[in-house]
Amino acid sequence: MTAVTDLVTSTTPRLHTVDMTVNGQRRSHEVEARLLLVHFIRQTLGLTGTHVGCDTTSCGACTVLLDGVSTYSCSTLTHAVRGRAITTIEGLEGPNGELHKVQQAMIDELGPQCGFCTPGQIMSAVALLNENPTPTRDEVRHALSGNLCRCGAYDHYLNAVMRAATGERVSQA
Amino acid sequence: VYPASFEYFAPSTLEEAISLLNEHGDEAKVMAGGQSLIPVMKLRFAAPSVIVDLNRIPGLDHLVERDGELVIGALVRHAACERSPLLRGRYRLLGDAAALVSDPLVRNRGTVCGSLAHCDPQGDWGAVMLAARASVVAQGPAGSRSIAIDDLLEGPFATTLAADEIITEARVPDPGERASGTYLKLERKVGDYATAAVAVQVSLDNGHVGEVGIGLTGVGPTNLRAGEAESALRGAEPTDEAIRSAAASAAEAAQPQEDHRGTVAYKRNLVRVLCERGLRTAVAAARAGEE
């Protein structure tokens, strides 16, 4: 059992070590108890593909995979994921830098509009396809329903995920 | 937004967790999925000085049938309930509700027992457990005790749990082969609080209603039981007329407040409509099991 102390009265926050795997690499850092996973990923590790959107457990822009399960990194303590495996949008590329099939399908189907929510949409889609490689469109809709898009590009995202699943073009010419 | 500073503990046994709670009293909060606790800490509605994370304690993630009960351990996530083949048929109320809790990302981390302990009047599981006549097992320094759901829910974000007690299990009695239920909810968008939601469970006995449970979400200071509607239906033949009348009685039991989701009259009517639909669905599904 480890105690992580960070008293309001102390001038320097108490730091304790967290070890975890991020995108296949072992990482070890000294962080505060209250550091949220999304800030650890963005500020400590410099992986800025994971976005802060609403910051209130609603929008899904901060979605990462925690042991393969899609998770709000804005609502997860860094210390709570000690020893676990995190995958961020940066971890999806292949050994030679090739895009993940969901990323490629997003381009091919013109999924994103402004693109801000796209990393989160992709992480939720990847989690779904790992578990269910041949989803129906309704299953995709259900799986992505925690990822909001202020541009309203939902149908385009659905097209892209269906294309990633089937390998076939979805949108009309 | 950063939460206020706190000490974080991740004990590996329940005994350690309880001893930490006993030591720190009201200053400590238990964290299971953290999907309600972390957001309220970020908003500074809560600023506990100690967090006791249950996630490193083995043996709390069981979702099983045992001795005539369905047992849901403290670390069973909403997503596990959504996917479990156990939560169909006579336990359908729970499976239907699980799929409607918040959004998929919250369901992946959040827990049933954590939701009950948080006791948000907008929480779904309180209404479900009322309809299913469930209880929770609370473990504290002196051992464990069983608390009926009606005795657990005290008010908005307030339960009858002591500061050093942890809900280790929710227990749902087997309603029998000829039983079913459902959970119906109106929400403006996925993840929003419910405008209103209704949990119903019905068991049939020779074509008559045996036991019946009706729980309401989002229309009171806590989840409410529509007790008069239940009494009117119990033992009766589940005719259209009886169902309509029970649904009207459930609407009377609601205590809605007007807000941006609707007026008092609108929400009361919504409870009536959802209850009527829910009872029809539950009775039809229970009959299918009755054959």
Task: Explain what you see.
The complex is a heterodimer of chains A (173) and B (291). By secondary structure, chain A is α+β, with helices and mostly antiparallel strands. Chain A has 5 helices and 6 strands, in the order E-E-E-H-E-E-E-H-H-H-H. The longest helix of chain A is centred in the C-terminal third of the chain and has 14 residues, at 118-131. The N and C termini of chain A lie far apart (59 Å). By secondary structure, chain B is α+β, with helices and mostly antiparallel strands. In chain B, 35% of the residues lie in helices and 27% in strands. Chain B has helices at residues 14-24, 37-42, 78-83, 92-98, 104-109, 112-118, 125-132, 149-152, 227-233, 240-253, 264-290, and strands spanning 7-9, 28-31, 50-53, 63-66, 69-73, 135-140, 143-148, 153-155, 158-159, 166-173, 179-187, 194-205, 208-217, 224-225. In chain B, the strands form 4 sheets. Chain B has a 5-stranded antiparallel beta sheet. In chain B, strands 11-12-13-14 form a 4-stranded antiparallel beta sheet, sandwiched between helices. The interface between A and B is large, with 38 and 34 residues.
